[in-house]
């Protein structure tokens, strides 16, 4: 009986839920939604097609402009001395402007967005504050990128040391700067960060660099002979600069072609006057920098044409100096340490060794409460 009552209740519930009137209402509701959607698409079909065409056209125009400007720069750089950094920044700004124009056209093609944009332009002050807070990092990177392109603390192709990394600048755009490090990693630094960092530019104005090599020799070795050996080994290396005097250096070595100077043509716009203190270059000097605890420290200063050659060449010269020192008998010493034990000092100070244990106890053991207790205990045991 209970099972029959349960089945009757279930059938009654299903009949109440799936009545023909309810099904008809659901079907009519979905038909109404589909009808409204179809009506909206049919009424705005031209607007949708226009938006799609404008979007595709914007992308096509932006890529075309980018390719044309890139090919033009490659052709012009063969004949003119063009600045890669400024050109790339100008190219990025031009492409961004094309996308912005396409976005504005799409916005004004939609009536609802058009009225919204007019309202936003009317309240431009408040909208500017809101957008400024929302896109603070992006705007700071864009402004810093434009400032870097204008003032040029570095250019594309320069070699930098920044944030304890050494590498070559390969790109500068509106958001970040790309640097290829010495181990072929891509260091991507936001422009707002790199504009606040201290930068060592090894290439700007004068790419030549003085590179040090430090060696320590023993106090018994001949300092003059060691200096002579170090200078001879440095002169043997092909990348060490020979003695010379320069009046001008290349400002843009990554753009200027070597055959420009081979033809006797010197463009003043790409030259920079060498500092008088560094006109005489190519000389090799060795200094005694420190009389250390166990070695005489020598420092050799050499000239290289570029920072990219200095590190590897310095390592090769350091190895050649070590091999030559071994052949010539110049010692590179190990650290010496003299260990003095406290017991040895006490033996030296003591005139003679105590003769009895009782005398040692009196001389070295301070009297105290525990000592008195121990003595009393020993006396009691002896008396017993």
UniProtKB/TrEMBL annotation:
Molecular functions per Gene Ontology: mechanosensitive monoatomic ion channel activity
Annotated TM spans: 48-69, 90-110
* InterPro entries referenced in this protein's UniProt entry, alphabetically: LSM_dom_sf, MS_channel_C, MscS_archaea/bacteria_type, MscS_beta-dom_sf, MscS_channel_2nd, MscS_channel_C_sf, MscS_channel_TM-2
Query: Any idea what this protein is called?
Result: Small-conductance mechanosensitive channel
Q: How does it sit in the membrane?
A: Multi-pass membrane protein
Q: Where in the cell is it found?
A: Cell membrane
Q: Record's GO cellular component, any one?
A: plasma membrane
Which domain of life does the UniProt lineage start with? Archaea
- Is Heme a UniProt keyword of this protein? no
Q: Where is the Mechanosensitive ion channel MscS domain positioned along the sequence? A: 137-203
Cited Gene3D superfamilies: 1.10.287.1260, 2.30.30.60, 3.30.70.100
Q: Where is the composition biased (Basic and acidic residues)?
A: 347-362
Ranges where the record places region Disordered: 347-384
């Amino acid at each position: 009986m209970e099972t029959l009552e349960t089945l009757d209740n279930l059938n009654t519930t299903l009949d109440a839920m799936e009545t023909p009137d309810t099904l008809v209402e659901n079907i009519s509701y979905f038909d109404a939604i589909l009808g409204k959607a179809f009506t909206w698409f049919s009424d705005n079909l031209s607007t949708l097609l226009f938006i799609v065409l404008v979007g595709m056209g914007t992308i096509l125009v932006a890529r075309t402009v980018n390719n044309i400007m890139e090919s033009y720069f490659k052709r012009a750089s063969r004949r003119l001395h063009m600045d890669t950094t400024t050109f790339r920044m100008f190219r990025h700004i031009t492409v961004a402007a094309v996308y912005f124009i396409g976005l504005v056209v799409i916005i004004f093609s939609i009536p609802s967005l058009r009225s919204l944009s007019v309202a936003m332009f009317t309240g431009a002050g408040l909208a500017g504050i809101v957008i400024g807070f929302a896109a603070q990092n992006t705007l700071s990177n864009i402004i810093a990128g434009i400032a870097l392109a204008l003032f040029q603390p570095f250019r594309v192709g320069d070699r930098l040391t920044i944030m304890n990394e050494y590498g070559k600048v390969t790109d500068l755009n509106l958001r970040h700067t790309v640097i290829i490090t010495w181990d072929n990693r891509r260091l991507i630094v936001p422009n707002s960060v790199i504009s606040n960092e201290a930068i060592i530019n090894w290439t700007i104005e004068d790419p030549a660099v003085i590179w040090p090599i430090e060696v320590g020799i023993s106090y018994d070795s001949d300092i003059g002979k060691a200096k002579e050996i170090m200078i001879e080994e440095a002169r043997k290396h092909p990348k060490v600069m020979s003695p010379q005097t320069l009046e001008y250096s290349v400002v843009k070595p990554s753009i200027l072609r070597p055959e420009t100077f081979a033809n006797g043509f010197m463009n003043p716009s790409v030259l920079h006057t060498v500092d008088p203190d560094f006109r005489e270059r190519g000389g090799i000097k060795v200094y005694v920098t420190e009389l250390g605890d166990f070695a005489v420290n020598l420092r050799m200063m050499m000239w290289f044409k570029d920072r990219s050659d200095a590190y590897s060449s310095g390592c090769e010269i350091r190895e050649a100096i070590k091999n030559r020192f071994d052949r010539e008998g110049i010692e590179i010493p190990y650290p010496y340490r003299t260990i003095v034990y406290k017991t040895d000092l006490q033996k030296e100070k003591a005139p003679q060794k105590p003769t009895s244990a009782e005398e040692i106890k009196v001389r070295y053991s301070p009297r105290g409460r525990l000592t008195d207790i121990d003595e009393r205990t020993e006396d009691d045991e002896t008396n017993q």
